[in-house]
């Protein structure tokens, strides 16, 4: 019972972050399951099964708050589903001993990317309204879907920064569109895992706990996306993912680091993490002072931000 309550709280927290940042539900939840010695494929399957419900509720909430560009959802989500099914069947074919450190390495890389991306660069906003092309969204969805299934998360860490980096779509609509399209990815990945490992290897009670917490948080996160500074949240979440997967990798058979080395590495990661969050907070406050705060959301921004070219 205690484990189910913990998973529900993790699902709630992860969805608050995911719905307001456009990433990290999968990588956060999967990281916890791996820490509980769950098999890599089983962990990813459990999380993706929970995501079917959380992404459905999250997408509806983002649509209600006007955060969704349906053209982006279609053009990135359909290829993403194809990539997710392929990634799920690939991961299912690997042994647990091989898959666990591989998944942790993927999660570590994604966490490091999120940490650096949001700490150093922040969010570009100077090209909002320029077209997002289909030849960019299609391959992006395919790669992000494959990484998402094999890493237990990655749809947001790959998709959200890539579209944000283009500066062509308002940040809240990027986040809402990525969260909504993730429903297609979650369904496809879950089907892939059911084919690859079967339902007997999926913990439905754990998936239900994650789902319950995520569904409670989804509408709150869709509202918070208008208020919470993504730069600070991105640095904070990236640090959590890096620290947790550093622990997994150092304890794995690949490295097998002694205690002194492990704890030294943990200390270095924590110091850098705190410095990154502090820097992001200072930069956010400086940018807010330098830029007049608009009253209310930018109505219609990015409404026509996609073309068929």
Automatic annotation (TrEMBL):
Keywords: Cell membrane, Membrane, Transmembrane, Transmembrane helix. The chain crosses the membrane at residues 98-116, 136-155, 175-197, 204-225, 260-281. It is found in: Cell membrane; Membrane. The keyword Transmembrane applies. GO terms for cellular component: plasma membrane. It comes from the Bacteria. Coiled coil: none annotated. It is a multi-pass membrane protein. Signal peptide: none annotated. Belongs to the 4-toluene sulfonate uptake permease (TSUP) (TC 2.A.102) family. This is Probable membrane transporter protein. The lineage of its organism: Bacteria, Bacillati, Actinomycetota, Actinomycetes, Micromonosporales.
């Amino acid at each position: 019972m205690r484990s189910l309550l913990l998973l529900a709280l993790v699902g709630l927290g992860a969805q608050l972050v995911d719905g307001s940042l456009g990433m990290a539900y999968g990588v956060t939840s999967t990281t916890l399951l791996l820490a509980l010695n769950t098999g890599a494929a089983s962990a990813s399957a459990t999380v993706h099964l929970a995501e079917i419900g959380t992404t459905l509720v999250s997408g509806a909430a983002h649509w209600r708050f006007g955060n969704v560009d349906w053209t982006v959802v279609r053009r990135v989500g359909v290829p993403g589903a194809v990539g997710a099914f392929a990634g799920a069947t690939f991961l299912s074919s690997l042994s647990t001993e091989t898959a666990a450190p591989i998944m942790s390495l993927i999660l570590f890389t994604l966490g490091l990317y999120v940490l650096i991306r949001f700490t150093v660069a922040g969010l570009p906003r100077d090209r909002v309204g320029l077209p997002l092309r289909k030849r960019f969204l299609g391959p992006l969805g395919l790669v992000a879907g494959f990484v998402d299934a094999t890493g237990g998360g990655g749809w947001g860490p790959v998709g959200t920064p890539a579209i944000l980096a283009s500066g062509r779509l308002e940040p809240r609509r990027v986040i809402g569109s990525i969260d909504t399209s993730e429903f297609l990815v979650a369904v496809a990945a879950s089907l892939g895992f059911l084919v690859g490992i079967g339902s007997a290897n999926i913990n439905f009670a754990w998936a239900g706990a994650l789902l319950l917490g995520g569904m409670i948080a989804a509408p709150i996160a869709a509202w918070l996306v208008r208020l919470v500074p993504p730069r600070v949240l991105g640095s904070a979440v990236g640090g959590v993912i890096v620290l947790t997967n550093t622990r997994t990798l150092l304890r794995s058979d690949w490295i097998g680091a002694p205690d002194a080395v492990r704890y030294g590495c943990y200390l270095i990661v924590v110091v850098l993490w705190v410095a990154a969050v502090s820097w992001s907070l200072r930069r956010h406050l400086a940018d807010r002072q330098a830029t007049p705060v608009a009253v209310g959301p930018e109505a219609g921004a990015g409404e026509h931000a996609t073309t068929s070219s």
